[in-house]
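Example for tutorial group B:
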C-alpha cells in the first residue's frame, strides 16, 4: 500500500517510533536480504521513511507499507 509521504507522517513516525521497514519485519531474511514470502521491495527497506534513495540521492514522495508486515 502506498501513501503520500507528508511531513505529518514523517513527524509521527519519529514521535511514536513507528516501524515499517523490511528490517523490522518478522518475515525478513537478513542472510538473503529478502522477504521470506518473496514479496518485492517496493521501497519498504527505506528507513527512516524520508531517507534519500542511496543511488540517486532523491527524496521520496511516497511511503510504501507491506500488507504482511509483522513487527519483530
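The residue assignment follows.
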Amino acid at each position: 500500500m502506498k501513501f503520500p509521504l507528508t511531513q505529518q507522517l514523517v513527524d509521527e513516525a519519529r514521535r511514536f517510533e513507528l516501524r515499517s521497514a523490511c528490517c523490522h519485519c518478522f518475515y525478513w531474511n537478513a542472510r538473503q536480504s529478502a522477504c521470506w514470502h518473496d514479496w518485492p521491495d517496493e521501497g519498504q527497506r527505506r528507513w527512516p521513511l524520508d531517507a534519500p534513495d542511496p543511488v540517486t540521492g532523491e527524496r521520496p514522495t511516497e511511503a510504501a507499507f507491506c500488507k504482511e508486515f509483522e513487527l519483530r
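The first strand starts at residue 2 and ends at 4. Compare this with the pattern of hydrophobic and polar residues in the output above.
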